[in-house]
Structures
1.
Amino acid sequence: MEFAKRLDNVTGSAIRAIFALLAQPGMISFAGGNPSPDSFPKEDIANISASLLCEHGSSILQYGGTPGIGSLKNTVIKMMETRSISAKPDEVIITSGATQGIGLAAKTLVNPGDVILTESPTFIGALQTFLTYEADVKGVEMDDDGMKMDDLEKKLTLYRPKFIYTIPTFQNPTGRTMSLERRKQMIALCKAHNVLILEDDPYCDLRYSGQPVRPIKSLDEDQLVIYLMSFSKIISPGLRVGAAIAHPRVIEKYNIAKQGEDLHTANLSQEIVNAYMLSGKAEPHIEAICAQYRDKRDAMLKKMEEWPKSITYTKPDGGLFIWVDLPKHMNAVDLFKQCVDAGVAYVPGVHFFPEGGHENTMRLNFSMASFEQIDKGMDILKGVIEKNI
Amino acid sequence: MEFAKRLDNVTGSAIRAIFALLAQPGMISFAGGNPSPDSFPKEDIANISASLLCEHGSSILQYGGTPGIGSLKNTVIKMMETRSISAKPDEVIITSGATQGIGLAAKTLVNPGDVILTESPTFIGALQTFLTYEADVKGVEMDDDGMKMDDLEKKLTLYRPKFIYTIPTFQNPTGRTMSLERRKQMIALCKAHNVLILEDDPYCDLRYSGQPVRPIKSLDEDQLVIYLMSFSKIISPGLRVGAAIAHPRVIEKYNIAKQGEDLHTANLSQEIVNAYMLSGKAEPHIEAICAQYRDKRDAMLKKMEEWPKSITYTKPDGGLFIWVDLPKHMNAVDLFKQCVDAGVAYVPGVHFFPEGGHENTMRLNFSMASFEQIDKGMDILKGVIEKNI
C-alpha cells in the first residue's frame, strides 16, 4: 500500500503515546486541554435538544447547507459585535470546531512547500494539520507579550509566508496574551507584506483577570484576517461547532473545501448551540466556568510558589494552560516518565515547537483536574522536579 | 489573495445554480438526493437524545476520540456481519457521513496527478472532492450490470490508477446494481493489478425488489477494499454519521487525516445513531421507508410508461434514482431551463461524467417528492420532452 506523500511527516505517535498513558487508573492529568467534565450544562442541553427535534426534526434531520444554519450564523455575527468585529453573512461559515477552520485554511491557501509562520511554541494540532498539506512551518520567537515583532518582520521578509497562524489570547500552550500594541504592529506588517493572518481565538471568553484585548480581526480594515471562533470551550467540544469569519472570497473557498470533508456540520449540534446561546443561560454559564477555572488556576499557581526559584512560568489571565521553563539542563521528556510512574502527567514542551528543541519546557493544564487532584498532582510534580534539579 | 492550486478546478457552480432554483416557490424537485422529509423518526430521536444527554451528558459533551465511539463501532461491526463482511475494531473508523470517507481516501492515497477510475457516470460530490486533491479522474463505461470489466481492465493497464471508486449497489446517478459476477471479476482484476477499491455503499438497505447482492468487500480476501457505509439514508443525513471499514493501516491513515478535519464526529450524533440502531426501532423504520420509496419509484416508472418509446431509462431495484437516456439529438441542459420555467427540476446528466458529454441524459430522484408532486411533475416533464423530441 502506497500512501499519499502529504501524510509522510505526520504520525502524532508521541502525543498519542502520552494520551494513552492517561488511561491508567488514578493518573492525575495536567496533559489535556479539555474543559472540566462537570462544566457542561447537560440538563439544559437535553431539554433544548428534545424540544428542537420535536418542533423542527424534519429539517434538523435532513441534509443542511454547507455554510451552516442561518440563525446560528446570525448568532455568531451578534457575538462578534461584542468583540468589536463586524461581519456580514457571506463572511461567516460554520465549521466543525475551530479545528476544521485551521485545516481549511491550509487546504484553501497552501501549496506544498509554502511557509506558514506560527508562534514558537504553538498548538500541536495546527502543526500536524499544516504538515498534512506539506507546509513548511517556521516558528516566530515570543515573550510575555506574544509574538516578537522584530523576529516576525525578519521572517516575513526571509520566508514570504502564505499566512501567519496565531493564538493571540491565552495562547495554547503558553497562556500568554499578545499586547494591543503588537496586534496593531502585526496588522501593519501583514498589510505591508501582503500576508494573511489566521487568528485562532477559542479561549477569549475564558478571562479570569485583567482587561480584554481586542481581537486582531477587529483592527483589520483590509480583511487580511481569517478569524476562528469556537463553542468548544464555552458550551461543549463534543458537539464540534465553531465558525470562521473572513473575506467573502475566503469563505467561498472554505465552502467548497468543506463540502469534501463533511458536507456540513451536524444540524443538531448547530441548532443546540444556537438555542443555548439565545436562551439567556450562556452568560451565567460562562461566568460560572470562569469562576471555577480562575480558582483552579490560582490553586495551581499557589502550589508553584513553593517551587525552586530557578523555574519560571507564565501567570495567564485566562485560558487553560500554564507554561513552565525549567533550568536549561533539565529535560521534561525524561522527567515525564518519572512523573507518570509517580501518577501525574503533563505534555513535554518540545512537541509544541515547529523546529523542536526546548526540552526544558512543559505545559500544564488546570481546567480538567479537580482541586484535590491539583493539590496532590502538584506535590508529586514538585517532588520529581526537586529530585532532578 | 492567492489560493491553493488544488481548488482551481472545483467550482461546483453549475450544481449550485441548479439547487438555487429549487428554492423557487412551487418548484417540484426531482433534482436532489434527499430522503423524504416525513421519513425521519423525529420523536424517537428526540426521546433518545434527551435520555442520552441526561445519563451520559458529561462524556457526550466532552472531546471524543478520532476513531469514534467504541459502542457505535461495535454496532457497525454487527451490521457488517449481516452484509457478510467481517471486521475488527481496528478496521473501523466512524466518519462524518460517507462523504468524509470519500475525501479521506483521496487525502490519504492520492498524490497530484494520480488517476482514480470511477463509473461513468458517477456521484458528483466524489468527482469534485477528487479534484480538490488534484486527482486525474477517468470514467469506466457501464451497462445495466454496472462497470464493464473489459473497459476496466483496459484502463487499469493504461492508467495504473491509485484506486477505483465504485457505488456498486443502486448507483448514484443511474440506480444500477453491479452483478455478482462482475464484483468477483473486479476483485480479481484489482488483485492482479494491485489496485485498491473504494466501495461506496450508502443505499444498500434501500432495496424494493430483487435479491441482495453481496458487497465487493465481502469478497475481499486481500483487504483491497475500503468500504464506506452511511446512516444518512436509513436514519438521518443531518446527523452526519457513517463509517469506513478497511485494512488497519488504511484506518490508521484515515485517523491521522481526520484529526485535521473535525477531530472527531459529533458525539451526540454518534450516540443517537447507536442507540437508535440498538432500540429495535431501526428495522421496522427501514421497512417503512422502503415501502414508501418502492411506491414512489413505481409511481414515477408508471408515468414513464407513457413516454415516447425512443427514450430509455433504468428500472432500479432500490436506491433513490432513475437514469434517463433521451434520443441523442436532445439536450437535457437546454431542456432543463424549459422544465424549470414550467415548475419541475432534475439534474442534467452531463455533470455526472468525469469527462463530460452525454448531454442527452438526466437523473430523476423519486424519494423527495410527494406522490401528488410525482404525478404532476412527471406530466410537466412529459410535456416538455414531447415538445422537443
2.
Amino acid sequence: MRASARRPTANAAGLRPPAAGRLALGLDIGGSHMAAGLVDASGRVHGWRRRALDAACHPDRAMETAAALLDEVLAAHPEQASQVVGVGMGLPGMVEVTGGRLVFAPNLRWTDYPAADRLAGLTGLAVVADNDARLATLAEALFGAARGCSDVLGVIIGTGIGGGIILDGRLFRGPGGTAGEIGHLTLDLDGPACRCGNRGCLETLVAGPAIAAAGRAALARAVQEDRPGPLRSLCEDDPAAVTAAAVSAAAAAGDQAAREILARAGTWLGIALAGCCNLINPRLVVVGGGVAEAGELLLGPARCEIARRTMSVPRAMVDVVTGELGAMAGVIGAGALVLGDY
Amino acid sequence: MRASARRPTANAAGLRPPAAGRLALGLDIGGSHMAAGLVDASGRVHGWRRRALDAACHPDRAMETAAALLDEVLAAHPEQASQVVGVGMGLPGMVEVTGGRLVFAPNLRWTDYPAADRLAGLTGLAVVADNDARLATLAEALFGAARGCSDVLGVIIGTGIGGGIILDGRLFRGPGGTAGEIGHLTLDLDGPACRCGNRGCLETLVAGPAIAAAGRAALARAVQEDRPGPLRSLCEDDPAAVTAAAVSAAAAAGDQAAREILARAGTWLGIALAGCCNLINPRLVVVGGGVAEAGELLLGPARCEIARRTMSVPRAMVDVVTGELGAMAGVIGAGALVLGDY
C-alpha cells in the first residue's frame, strides 16, 4: 500500500522585472519631502527632483505641488512624454490600493483623502497609489539590495517607519492593503505616545524624530558638563541643528553618546525584526530610509538582537542589509508599480 | 495622454478543499500527547485515538508508538484501508517540509530527526510532515472557524505556542518552512527563559505551563491566607493538580485569581496579536489548542489590546475567534496535507 503522498514545496524566485519599453512617472510623498522622476523598466530615474513638504499643509495643496513637480519632470524630457503610461504615487500611510485613497497618514495627519483621483484630475494622467515603504521595498526587490530574492522584509526608517513584504516572490499587501506596518509593533508597553494612537511603537523609539530627540538630550548634557565632542561641533551647540542625520554623522566621527543612541535604536529595531523573522521567515531584511544611512552603527546591534531572539532556522537563513537605492527607492518603486504587475 | 495605469488588486478566496474520494491517516504529535485518525476529504475523522507522549522519550520510540497507533486506526477500519493514500504528520517544532525532517522541537528536545522517513519505514506508507500548529490552522481554514477565509492567522496554545499563516488564500510556510512561529515573539525583554534559547517569548507567558505555574502560585497564596475558592476546591489544595485546564475551570466557576491569570495571559496574547495584525493584516485570528478552551476569559483581554495597539484599517477588519475543531484540528490538518495541494 505504498503510495506517493505529495511532498509540499515552497520554492519561489524573486519578483519579475517590468517589460522594457515603457516609462512611468514615480512620485514619492514622504513625511517631510516629496520627490519625483521618470522611471524606466530598468529602474533608472530620469529628471529626479525633490520638494520640501510642510506636514501641516492641506492635501489638496500637496497634490497641486506634486502635479507641478511632475510637469517639471515631463517638461525636462519632452521626447519621452509619449512613452509615459501613468503615475505611481507612494503615500506615507495606509492606502486603499484599489481606489488610490489615503486612509490615514499619521505623520501628515491626512485622513480619508482621494489622493489618486485628485492627482489624476490635476495631471490628466492615470494614477495608482500605494504605501511609500512598500514601494521602496518593491524597488529594492526589483533593482536594489533584494534583487532576485523571493522573501523580503523591507523596513524604511525616516520621519516614520514603514515596511514592505515580499513573500514567495510576490508583493504582499494583505486584504486591507496595510500589511507591512512594522513601525507600529508595540515594543515598550508603556513607552512614548505614537501618532497612531498606541504607545511604545517601534516608530517612537527608532524613527528620525526619536533619534533627533535623544541627540538633543545628549547635546544638552554635553553642554552642561562642558564636554566637547563631534555632536557639539557638528551642531555648533544648537539643539535645532540636531537631526537624525547629525546624530549619525557625529557617531561616525566617534561621538560616544551618538553611538549609544544609534546602538539603542538598533537594539529596538533588532527586537522587532527578530519577531518578524520568527513570524514570516524572510531571507532578507532590507533597511532603507534616511536613518539607515547610519549603517552598521544601527544594524550591528540589530543583528545581535536577531541572533538572540530568532529561532535557529529563520536566524540562519536571514541576512540584514541596507538598501542600495537610497532616497531614490520610493520614486523607483512608485514608477515600477505602473510598469509591472505587482 | 490619459492612459489606464493598472490598479493593483488583492482579492483571494479561501483554501480549496481536497477532492473527494480519498482518505489519509492524520497523526498529530504534540508536546505531551499524540493523536491519530482516518481523515476524509470533508475533514471528518474516523477512529480518532490518542496516547500520552513522554516528552523525554527518544523519537524512535515515539515513532514506534505512532506506527502502532496508526495500525490500530487502520485495523478498526479494514474496509477503508485501500483508499488511504498516505500519512500526514504534525510535529511540534520546526520541520523541513520537503524532507519531513524535524529540525528542532523545543518542548520535546528532539533535534534534527528524520521523522517522516522513520515513520515511512515503520508503516510502509508514504509520509509527509509539517508543523503541528500550521496543520491545525490548515484544518480550521478548510473545515472549521476560518472556512472560506483568505487571510488567517492561527495561534495554537498548548504545551507551547505555535502558529499558522494563510495569506491570499494560500498556506504560507516561508522559505525555511518555519513561518508562523508566533510563540517566540519577544514580549517581555527580560522575561522568563524560553526553551528556544530566548527570553520573554509569548510562549513563556501564555502557554499551558505558564498558566499552570501562575495557578500554583495562586493556590499557594489562597492556602496560606486561608481563602476558599473554586481553584482550591477543584484542585483539592494539591499543587500537582493545577493545570491550565484547572485554572480555566476555576475561572469559569468565578475564581478571581484564576480570572486574573487568564486576563494577564490574554493581555500578552493581544499585544503579540496586535503586532501580527499590523504586520500581516489578517481577516481572522483563530485561537486553538487546549488553553483556548478558556474562551472569552482569555480572548476578551486579548481583543482589548488588539483594539489599543493595532492601526485602524487592520483593526477594523480582523475578528478573533476560538477554533471549532478542538483537539481534532491537528489530526484533520495532517490528513488534509496528504489529500489536498497546500
